[in-house]
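Here is an idea for our session: we take a single protein and study its fold together. Once you have written the record down, we can walk along the chain together.
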Amino acid sequence: MGYKLFYYPGNANLAPHFVLEELGVPYELSLVDRTRNQQKDPDYLRLNPNGRIPTLVDGEQVLYEAAAICLHLADRHPQAGLAPDPGTRERGELYKWLMYFTNTVQAEAMIYFYPETRSADESHWPAIKRRAEERLGGWFDNVEAHLAAGGPYVLGASYGIADCFLFMLGRWGRGLQRPPRALPAFGRFLNLVGERPAIRRALEQEGLTQPYF
């Protein structure tokens, strides 16, 4: 069984890349060079008509949306234990947090990084970024409270795909005035997950350098 993950260093492909490394399954990385706008090339758009990264090819199936890819990989390899069994309380918690990460936190990060998507007037961009950073701080505070009350991982004692996704978001927040690493429980989480060999391998394969978060 082999997979092909289309990626650009440090983009939303990081989470599924982490999962692939944790699974230890055969896969191929294929660079989509955003500096050359390759995500808009016709060949790539045939795979992902949204022109976004990542995309995963699994045989004849093509998937996009990082959270969906992570869930798919975990379900394809249940023996790895990266997601609770369907129908369990813990699986419901996974859905809740993974959707929070992608629909709320990641969506806000996209506004912060790409304020031009909210206004064509460049003079508006600093204010858009400030408001997005304020909201991101609140979303990260919610994660901090959750990790402080349970932890060390998103689902308590069990490591899995939600942690891969959250580590990616924590990395994205490294440039904020109050980055996730500055929050006590969140900082412990980033240090703990950041020491995992699979995480380090994925970061290095994408050519990312320290500080990772």
Observations:
- The domain at 89-196 is CATH 1.20.1050.10 (Glutathione S-transferase Yfyf (Class Pi); Chain A, domain 2).
- Strands lie at 3-7, 27-31, 55-58, 61-64.
